[in-house]
Structure formats: C-alpha cells, structure tokens
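Quick one: structure tokens for this chain, please?
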Amino acid sequence: MELKGKKIGFAFTGSYCTLDRVIPSLERLVEVGAIVYPIFSESIQKRDTKFGTAASWEEKVIKITGNEPMTNLIEVEPIGPEKFLDILIVAPCTGNTMAKIANGITDTTVSMAVKAHLRNDKPIILAIATNDGLGNNAENLGKLLNTKNIYFVPFGQDNPSQKINSLISRMDLIEESLKLALEEKQIQPVLIEYKGF
C-alpha cells in the first residue's frame, strides 16, 4: 500500500541514542507524501542529553514534518473520537512505553495516543529500542506480539555479548513495516539478526 496522503502519527519516546536512526525514516515518509503528525513523550520534551537538546529535536521534527508535536494528554486524546490518523508508529519505543501499552496504562502522551488510536481498530507499529526486551519486558513483548492491531518493525539483539537483554528494531524498515500494517500484515521475519542498521 502506498503511503502518499496517509495520515501518520509518529510518536517519539526517550531512547535518545536511537533518535538519529529514526530521523531518516521520518524524512522518507514526508518525501513519499505522507502527512506526519509528531507526538513527543514527556522525556523527549524536557530532557537535554549528549545526543541532543529537547529544543533541537523539536526544531528538527517540525522542520521535517511542518507540524508542531502533540505534547500532552489533551492534545492526543482526540485521536480516538476524531479518527484522523490512518496509522500510528512509536519509534523509538522504549521498554517503559512498551510495558505501559501492554498493560493498558495511559498516563503519558504516547501511551494515551496509542490507546486513542486502538479504539478505532486501526494499526499501531512499535519500533522497539529497549535494554530489557529479553528481561523484565519479555512478558510485555510477548503479550503485544499477540495483540490485535499491534505490529512490530523487525528487531534483534543489538549487543548480545555485553547487553544480553537488549533489543532494537531496524529503523530502516519503518516504511515497509507501515505499508504492510496498513494491509493488516506483519512484516516478516520479525526476529532478525541485528547488524547495526
């Protein structure tokens, strides 16, 4: 399915070291004619890190998409009743956010956006980046792999010798993952050997 004209919610969470890997996919979506609505988690909005300041990420995303990010529960709640998104992606999706989604906790901007969009029986894509995907969060990952309308960008262990529980998605597969999810298909294989893409 083509992405031109599709309304895509693009939610960013606080895997700061992964943000640079996500930006090229964001740019690509705009290039192919998608209408992208950014959504920022509270941590992206407030924290400056060695990977960039909160203000610099906001400026970069606005420049790419032409849209101000949604930043609070009040702004994202209408995603449900107004049904204005075709699909929503969380990229990068931290383990914390994954756990909230798996357990129906909607106390953040991103988890509320997901809840609101799921109520419309439309697809959600998760591009995970978590140090505990095979640890405490493995249960949540398993639950979401079996949840209707939840799809994943293929992922693998990014550093199995030093971070045995860490998982990260291939961010370069975001576009293809979105296209297939719009057809209610999970891109395969979902489990991959991660080679630093």
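The longest strand covers residues 87-93.
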